[in-house]
Amino acid sequence: MSRYRKQILFDGLGEAGQSRLRESRVLCVGCGALGSVIAESLVRAGVGMLRIADRDFVDLSNLQRQVLYDEEDVAQRLPKAIAAANKLRRINSDVVIEPHVADVTCQSVGELCDGVNLIMDGTDNFETRFLINDAAIEAGIPWIHAGCVGAHGQVMAIVPGQTPCLRCLMPEMPGPGTSETCDTAGVIGPAVQIVASLQVVAALKILSGQTELIRPELTVIDVWDGTLRQLKLSGLQEAGGCQCCGRREFPFLHGDEGSRSVVLCGRNSVQVAPSTSGKLSLFDLANRLDPSGEVQANPFLVRFRPDESEHELTIFADGRAIITGTEDLAEAKSLYARYIGA
Ligand SMILES: [Zn+2]
What is the pLDDT along the chain (342 residues), one digit of tens a residue? Predict the structure, then answer.
């Protein structure tokens, strides 16, 4: 316990809180900018197990704010979940780190949530957040939503049965092009650090067994203006009619809502996911693609640039592909079909 001495000295946690932390199991969905800070902080604080799900690989343009990664991870073209696990195990070998190179979909979310006490939002899109909200409310697992663009962000801790859920706040998913993204507005590192740190504070309260300290509110922060506001959300639930926590209908969890292909935030890229799940032989695929362009492969992915093309395809073992050089879903799907096969 000596490595946690300073944290135990803090009245809010104490030895009892630290013991609870050690027993806790957390899922972090997305390990980009917010996820890097969340994962590092929780591992240093001494949670028992951290499961990380991320569908992406480390890119040079991530290093400005995604603090778990370095140039070596870029050179090795590592998936973020793997690069994060490597780093986190060096930080605290007592914590069980469980990386999943996977997209969080209605098919995979149940298994990823299995046995965890808390879910952390490290995503960059509302489709995944609405899915997490359904899964968390259905299973009774607290989750901490956050988002960050430019210099501003928001944090909302959701405790099923105690606070309003994300869909009490936002009954419908924002339409395409209706909300700011890091593509249009950019993002600065300190905004991410502060927003993620507020998520971690809420996590420490919940994981140390003090869930009653979580208030029904949305924290909105702008680090450039130097403002922090806490919007009271009590009353949202009484307004009633929430499809998720009120009527307990879960259309995102049951796959009635949500698509299989998504434009990736700020990357001029589309992810295409096959409608059927299954393992792909990356070795065979690399050999098959070799005559058609430039191929790089490692045990986790194949990167392929077709001859005379401005596109690049990164294909993972679960059959997903990230197609760069386009934001057009149809074009991405046709490239997928051409080179990988539907
Ligand atoms: Zn609700």
Answer: 789 999 999 999 999 999 999 999 999 999 999 999 999 999 999 999 999 999 888 989 899 999 999 999 999 989 999 999 999 999 999 999 999 998 888 889 999 999 999 999 999 888 889 999 999 999 999 999 999 999 999 999 999 999 999 999 999 877 654 566 665 578 999 999 999 999 999 999 999 999 999 999 999 999 999 999 999 998 887 666 899 999 999 999 998 775 577 888 778 899 988 655 567 888 888 988 888 899 999 999 999 998 888 999 999 988 889 999 998 877 787 788 778 875
Instruction: Extract the tokens encoding 333.
Output: 């799907």
Q: How far apart are CA 43 and CA 145, in angstroms?
A: 19
* Strand spans (E) along the chain: 25-29, 49-54, 96-101, 118-121, 143-149, 152-158, 217-222, 227-232, 261-264, 269-272, 293-297, 301-306, 312-316, 321-324
**C-alpha of residue 250 to centroid of ligand 1, in Å:** 11
If asked whether residues 14 and 88 sit together in one domain, one would say: yes
In this structure, are 226 and 285 located in the same domain?
no
Q: How far apart are CA 149 and CA 179, in angstroms?
A: 10
| β-sheet bridge partners, residue 149 | 152
Tell me how far the alpha carbon of residue 167 lies from the centroid of ligand 1, in angstroms. 5
Cβ-proximal residues to 208 (8 Å cutoff; 6+ apart), any chain:
12, 13, 16, 17, 18, 20, 21
184 within domain boundaries: yes
Out of 113, 148, 168, 182, which one is annotated catalytic?
A: 182
Q: Which of 178, 211, 232 is the last residue of a domain?
A: 232
Are residues 204 and 272 both part of a single domain?
no
State yes or no: is 165 an active-site residue. no
